[in-house]
Design a protein that fits this description.
By secondary structure, this protein is mostly helical. Helices cover 68% and strands 3% of the residues. The strands form 2 sheets. It has a two-stranded antiparallel sheet. Strand 1 and strand 2 (36-40) form a beta hairpin.
């Protein structure tokens, strides 16, 4: 991705007359074969009915040699380098069963092994998206990129056991899940968007993007951030209040009710957003993304690349998702040891470590698109993934926890909540003018590093603070009121 040659003006990779001819002749052609008209794409492959010409592979079924070669090459050079990490997949599984007492090694190996598996999900999702209409393809690709996050949330929730009476199997992963929801949003709007701005800004003085992408995305982000913060604000307001008579159990139940209602409402907002993109305003998004494709410096090269078949896409998704599920289980089993014995805080685990491995594939895809001057596509992935986490994945884990009888709520730590709101404001300001440069990208990345350092130093909260459940209603001690008095 970053190894392409530039001309002396630094405007981008050199393009020959032949490449320009190929770039301008990608429209499908019609020809008569055996008395029937058929469409053929830019590579001369007959286009299958229902398949977009850009995604037609010209093959059917599974061809092991082609499948391995195309998957190994991936979407870009940096994604291809990530495939070097595939040996960590069997190594992580072997160490888990051969040396179950090697907790740090099991955690580290499975953490690394999730990266190539997530990368394959991203690549297979992109190949599948090429075969579909543009808007639907981008939405599907974004959803598949969030599969890793959903799997990790569900495994953490399933392994959660916050019953103090069951000391042998006590594992309270809910603080980690809450931190991971916010951490995923931060990783997208600060780290990934920052790298997109920075990478694109290295090749050109300024990049612009369409208002329909930035305004809708930033508006939904602010709405989602507001909705996610309501349960924490509700708890903070009442935990130290002397004007209301609430027991700790009653307050916990009310916060849980507010969280579940909020989750359902955010779910509705997500489906309205999907309907807006796919049905009522799809033509606007189609035209924006089509213009972005025309600006892609490597479009002629991408079109000439060999493609996976539909069957191979599904096969790759099954294999990669199975690997992600396996590594997620092994990873979650070691979180308790890493937090308790190695001194890693819940905030750092959830805000930084878990989101980085969740979002690896999406980040690589978005940065590659920004490098190729497809900033609308890059922001569609960045903001789409963020909105999916805030309006779908986060509420989903609350609703699933409701069904499993687990007290999964949205009562975030005050530290995490403040960081989220500030990050959304910063991202919204950078998106407002519809332009980006490397300085804005560098600033986003630096802010993320500051957050990572602060979360690493942040201690685990005591029971009864925002994010936990036990409060003395008479004094407010142990709750958010105690923390606010300390700050004052």
């Amino acid at each position: 991705m970053f190894g392409r040659r530039k001309d002396k003006t630094g405007a981008g990779p050199r393009t020959t007359g032949q490449d320009l001819e190929l770039a301008n002749s990608y429209e499908p052609k019609e020809a008569a074969v055996d008395g029937h008209k058929h469409r053929f794409n830019h590579n001369g492959h007959k286009v299958t009915k229902g398949i977009h010409p850009d995604g037609e592979s010209g093959r059917r079924g599974i061809h092991p040699h082609h499948f391995l070669r195309i998957s190994a090459r991936s979407t870009s050079k940096i994604s291809m380098i990530v495939n070097v990490l595939w040996p960590f997949v069997p190594a992580a599984i072997a160490v888990r069963y051969a040396h179950p007492e090697a907790h740090v090694w099991i955690f580290a190996l499975n953490y690394i092994a999730m990266v190539p598996a997530a990368n394959l999900i991203g690549f297979a999702g992109q190949e599948l998206a090429r075969k579909l209409p543009k808007v639907f393809g981008v939405l599907l690709e974004t959803f598949l990129g969030g599969i890793v996050e959903i799997v990790l949330f569900m495994v953490l929730l399933r392994k959660n056991n916050d019953d103090p009476a069951d000391e042998e199997h006590y594992n309270n992963f809910i603080p980690v899940i809450r931190a991971a929801i916010l951490g995923s949003i931060l990783a997208n709007v600060l780290l990934c968007m920052g790298f997109c701005f920075f990478a694109g800004g290295l090749r050109r003085e300024e990049q612009d993007f369409d208002a329909v992408i930035s305004e809708v995305g930033s508006g939904l982000l602010m709405t989602a951030g507001f909705g996610l913060m309501i349960p924490a604000a509700f708890f903070t307001s009442l935990s130290g209040s002397t004007s209301v008579d609430l027991t700790a159990e009653s307050l916990t139940d009310k916060v849980l009710t507010v969280s579940r209602v909020t989750a359902v409402i955010l779910f509705i907002a997500f489906f309205l957003y999907v309907w807006f993109q796919m049905r009522t305003h799809h033509s606007i998004y189609d035209s924006v993304l089509e213009k972005d494709e025309e600006r892609d410096h490597d479009r002629h090269k991408d079109l000439r690349k060999a493609k996976l078949t539909l069957t191979e896409c599904i096969f790759a998704l099954v294999i990669s998702i199975a690997c992600v599920c396996l590594h997620a289980v092994f990873l979650v089993e070691e979180i308790e040891y890493i937090v308790l014995e190695q001194g890693v805080s819940d905030s750092f685990m959830g805000l930084i470590l878990v989101p980085l491995v969740e979002k690896a594939a999406e980040h690589l895809t978005a940065v590659d698109e920004a490098w190729d001057n497809q900033m609308n596509f890059a922001l569609a992935h960045v903001l789409g993934a963020t909105i999916q986490t805030a309006l779908f994945n986060g509420p989903l884990v609350v609703i699933v926890g409701w069904g499993l009888g687990k007290a999964m709520d949205l009562n975030f730590e005050i530290f995490n909540a403040v960081i989220l709101i500030l990050a959304i404001i910063v991202a919204g300001n950078f998106l407002r003018d519809g332009k980006s440069n490397y300085l804005e990208g560098a600033l986003c990345i630096l802010i993320y590093i500051i957050i990572a350092v602060a979360s690493f130093q942040y201690p685990n909260p005591r029971e009864g603070s925002a994010g936990t459940s036990e409060v003395d209603p008479a004094t407010g001690e142990g709750g958010a009121a105690e923390k606010l008095r300390f700050l004052m």
